[in-house]
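P.,

For your records, the input lines for the assembly:
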Amino acid sequence: MKSLSLKNLAKTYFDAYKGEHVTAIRDVSLEVPAGEFVSIVGPSGCGKSTILNMVAGFIPHSGGEILVGGAPVKGPGPDRGVVFQSFALFPWKTVLDNVGFGPKMRGVPKAERDAIAREYLALAGLSHAADRYPNELSGGMQQRVGVVRALANQPDVLLMDEPFASVDAQTRMTLQDELSRIWEERRPTVVFITHDVPEAVFLANRVVVLSKGKVLAEVDVPISRPRVWDRLVADEQFKDLSNQVLALVRSA
Amino acid sequence: MERASRISAALIFIAPLAVLVALWAVVVPAFGVRPQIFPSVAAVGKAGLESLIDGSLLRHVASSVSRVAIGTVLAVLVAVPLGILMGVSRGVSAFLTPLMRFFSVLAGIAWIPIATLWFGYGFGAIVFVIFNAVFFVVAYNTLLGVSTIPMTLRHAAASLGAGRRAMLTDVLLPGALPNIVTGIRTGLGFAWRGLIAAEMIATDVGLGYMLFVARDFYQTEVIVLGMIVIGTLWLLIDRLILVPLERATIERWGLVSA
Ligand SMILES: Nc1ncnc2c1ncn2[C@@H]1O[C@H](COP(=O)(O)OP(=O)(O)O)[C@@H](O)[C@H]1O
Ligand SMILES: [Mg+2]
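Structure tokens returned:
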């Protein structure tokens, strides 16, 4: 587990279609201490994915710094695990081999990485699916695998870009419950991107509201843990914080 | 259950062929068709038996099949890595795609004249024709396959620690496999036809040669026998090699190529 710090981060795209430069991120500074769960919310197009893709190393940044545990980020790497909205599981690998992929890349022998993968699958109640292929699973199950695959590689920072946006509402709440429980058990450093305000508040220690490529506000979420929807739906503190964040997002 | 359904599938497949043979057995004597025009079933059977006994059929089949096998294996071995390399870089792939398509369309047969000029008559020219029939189609399809792999899969692999090599073996190759298999299937079809054509011109052994020589002596029973063997061999290659290959990989992964 390591800290993540963004210092005056900026990103300008060249829009080949319009033939002009577009500033997606103006000036974003953010500190995420090791073991903290931070949500970034904001209306669509405000630059959430751009930040995450730069931190993941998928696209270069145009200005500023990205430091993981104090070291600058250069390209993608296993120190930053990523969970994708589209799941991005390897269709040609079983669930077990998907989850064991990170350890395999580290050179962990087959028997050992299978054991690691099984341990993490058990964490998400997926033991029975180990030998299935991704296309044989529901969307909710696939994203459980996506989360577990990232965790099994023990990244310093876990990056999630609207991971639950493409599953049904019922499953989404279950996945949120599970992610919250897993975070409480393992305490990874997480940056979680969403446009869903209750989701952001439910999961995070701190919610960052993004607007037009800049940080509009940061809201601490001191709600006690463990957090489960059964308790939080009626929780006054949760409602107040959600309304507060929602007002900020709407003003964005 | 499994076996019963297999047998019934085989029957459904064979039935139309059996009907065709039955029709042939009736029509040839009924209309008194002369053997120079079309042989009787019995004559073809006899020709088959004789060529089996004197070993000539086996010799023709063996040389045809080995030429196809060698040309195809060589072509796949070169085309797949090259196709992947081309697919990895968008610039290279954009530049080479039209060329690959152009050469894919030539489909083997069109290479025969130049092949005989370059390699003379014989093994080299024929393998070259087969190589070209398979190579361009497989390279093109591999290139296509790589470029259709979603970027997020490459990103996922990279952020799980995959280097160049693992990206190749664990992402690009399996991701392109549905297209590669399609390419091999199309290419082998071209190759098989190209082979027969090339053997009529450029050799003195092989199924194509067998057909061509028989024509000079009005041996329609040998011609028809050759045609039956050529068709049957293709069906066997398709059923016993290509279809199982597809089953084992693509269908299981849910990657049936559109
Ligand atoms: N590859 C790109 N080329 C040009 N503009 C882009 C590109 N990707 C994103 N943008 C622009 O950058 C802005 C932020 O996009 P994004 O980070 O995807 O927002 P969000 O994830 O918050 O919806 C948008 O205005 C979008 O149109
Ligand atoms: Mg986005």
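Two observations worth noting. The CA atoms of residues 86 and 92 of chain B lie 6 Å apart. Chain B touches chain A through 23 residues (CB under 8 Å).

Regards
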